[in-house]
Structures
1.
Amino acid sequence: MEPTYQIQTRERPLRWRRIMTRLFAITFLFLCASKAASDWPTIFNDDVPGEIEQAAKGLPNVVRKCRVYGCWSNVVNLIDPQHLWRVEISREAIPVLVNDCKLTELGSSNEVPRQFWTQSPYWWHPPKTGKARYFITPGFSPETIISSEDGRYLTAYDESVEVLYVWRKWSYY
């Protein structure tokens, strides 16, 4: 009697499907992890930027928390570094900061460049409405390189929760 052979046609496609599913899952997890890592600030409070520290000088308990995010463009463009700040700061320091950084107040959120609202850190949610004030340094431009060591600023201060959002650009030359 001749041996009979059974051909298993389902095993190969099932094995291939499992491999592809695992490969897809690993790729998806890698992409999610790399995106999260790029937007993640330090876990602990960051050092308070010098401009904020100077504005808070002599005013006790003005600064509570500070997050600083170095934009990815800093890695590519070392000449024109940028940072985003989120600082919990009392409103008493705002006039001093405005004076020290030579900021001028904007009339509304409509005057703020659209790039300000679309920054990537997960905690970057500047107020577009409500009790908010907007300030800018003359000469600040989202697209151009800054030619000043003093720095240029675009800020939004949410008075209801006392949080200052700052986009800072400066140059080494």
2.
Amino acid sequence: MATPDTSKNTSRIILVIVGILVLSALAYFGIKYFTEKAENEKNIVQIENLENEILELEEQNLDFQATLDDKNIELAEKEQELSQKQDQIQKYINQLAAAKKKGRVNQKRIAELEARASSLQKFVDQYKNQIEELKAENAMLTAQVDTLRTSASRLIQEKEDLVATNESTSEELEKTIKIASVLKAREFSFAQVSKKGKEKVASEFRRNQLKDLKICFNLQENLIADPGERELYIVLENPDGSPNANYDEGFSGKFTFEDQEKVYTAKTSVNYNRLALEVCVPYRMADNTKFDKGPQYVSIYNEGNLIGQAAFKVK
């Protein structure tokens, strides 16, 4: 039978062991908590850095349209700059993928940044297509630029003569005329319209002040294009690539592009006579809605062709 002193010693030993276990557990969970807290703070900083990077890429993307329209810059230089932007976007996408793999970052914010990166990639792809079109035009129009500036009747007669002598040359000429006759929309401007009808032209607008928007651009002179009534579709896309539409006010609807239905923001008809023509189209946001913050992309379509692009910023 155990003595009272032995029982007390045993109880003390048990209490000491329990105390050690409790302190060890507290130390373990404390270290784990502060480690995870530091990791979360590091991830938050990483996401903020990625958000700043995507904003910088979006601003650079806006500037590139002006570079693309500048006729004094060589095509090779434009192509090189676009390649650099492609590398920057790919690097950013890789950084997003690495952040997403960690699993502790805010997945919703990652998804938003991925959507913005995807929108940037889409416009870089469109710029690539534009450059390829310019390269094709330059290659085919260099030898025939003098001929293409003559009257339509002379072009038709030359085409008939070429058909009689060389069917292959005729096919090339037909392709050249088709490309050259596509209208081009350039020199965009954007104006905020107040309730009193006053217009403020700018490239950046405040979200809370922008309700009525006026989009203006120039249809360039084209002596090859057929004159007559032309229907123009204006597509205004949010930073995430979704179309901006207001069906209630009758501004928006749908049209067919590349065998698919596409939402247009507004449309207008003009009487084109081969000379340069300024076109302005009003647009009003639907009630209880506002423009999203970030770059707003504007595309102009005519007769199944994308004929011009530009952008402005909402902050």
